[in-house]
Amino acid sequence: MKITYYGHSSILVEAGGKSVIIDPFLSGNPGSGISPSDVKVDAVVLTHGHSDHFGDCIEIAKNNDCPVIAVYELAVYCGNQGVKSHGINIGGSAQFDGFKVKYTPAFHSSSISVGDTWIYAGQPGGVILTMGGQQFYHAGDTSLFGDMKLIGEMNNIDAAALPIGDMLTMGPEDALLAAQWIRTKHVIPVHYDTFPGIRQDAQAFCEELAKTGVSGHPLKAGESLEI
After folding, report:
1. Whose CA is closest to 81, among 54, 108, 102?
2. Which residues contact residue 38 at a Cβ distance below 8 angstroms, ignoring those fewer than 6 apart?
3. pLDDT number for residue 120
4. Tens digit of pLDDT for each residue in 98-133?
5. Residue 30: is its pLDDT beyond 90?
6. Is 60 exposed, middle or buried (0-12, 13-18, 19+ CB in 10 A)?
7. Rounded distance between C-alpha atoms, residue 52 and residue 192, angstroms
8. Which one, of 65, 70, 62, 28, lies nearest residue 45 by Cα?
9. Tens digit of each residue's pLDDT (9 = 90 or more) over 199-208
10. Nearest to 78 by CA among 64, 91, 61, 65
11. For the sheet containing 11-15, what is the strand order?
């Protein structure tokens, strides 16, 4: 499995000849290092509807003639924008050609801003992506919550993307505990430094992770982790 970071919370996962992008906030993020037109994937997966995660999902789905996979209400919204979509609700999963997507809880909010109107986008979620016999957990935007222990007990998570920005999600201290609860081997810190209110020292976070026996990877945009 190859995991490539494109800034903020955008992650491209490749394995077994398939590729999936999660939360493709690219053109609106000067730190992404990639254009939506350069993305070649078999599916787009969304954790929730906020613009810094929804991002360029419609353009990418149209360019690749691939589905947007999301929580039900968000999937319906995407379908109404003229793309293929597949709704999965929290706790549910679906098998696709070469990969499986399961939605876990996440404690946050989810909506889409259209002018002065906010559209309800269902519950936010985390995603467990199984590809090539390995599991990648993208926690989405979330606080620390006790059932992360259950996620760790029920799965064999090889790598995870955990938010560390604080203010809008859990911060570094809580993410350290989350990494231990989900029993993962590798952590990629996400959702930090994009905006002034979420500045964090990812290197320092990864150094603290190492003390717990977990490998941290403070990737820069375009850098990859292979497991």
Report:
1. 54
2. none
3. 97
4. 999 999 999 999 999 999 999 999 999 999 999 999
5. no
6. buried
7. 12
8. 70
9. 999 999 999 9
10. 61
11. 85-87, 68-70, 43-45, 18-22, 11-15, 2-5, 224-226
Q: How many CB atoms lie within 10 A of CB 227?
A: 15
Q: At what angle do helices 172-181 and 202-210 cross, to 10 degrees?
A: 40
pLDDT in tens, 150-187: 999 999 999 999 999 999 999 999 999 999 999 999 99
Q: Is the Cβ–Cβ distance between 1 and 17 less than 8 Å? A: no
Residue 85 to residue 68: CA distance in whole angstroms = 5
* β partners of residue 2: 14, 226
- Residue 13 near residue 22 (C-beta atoms within 8 A): yes
Which tokens go with 39? Answer: 């993305």
Half-sphere exposure of residue 81, counting CA atoms within 13 Å on the CB side? 20
Residue type, 209: L
Decide if pLDDT at 58 tops 90. Answer: yes
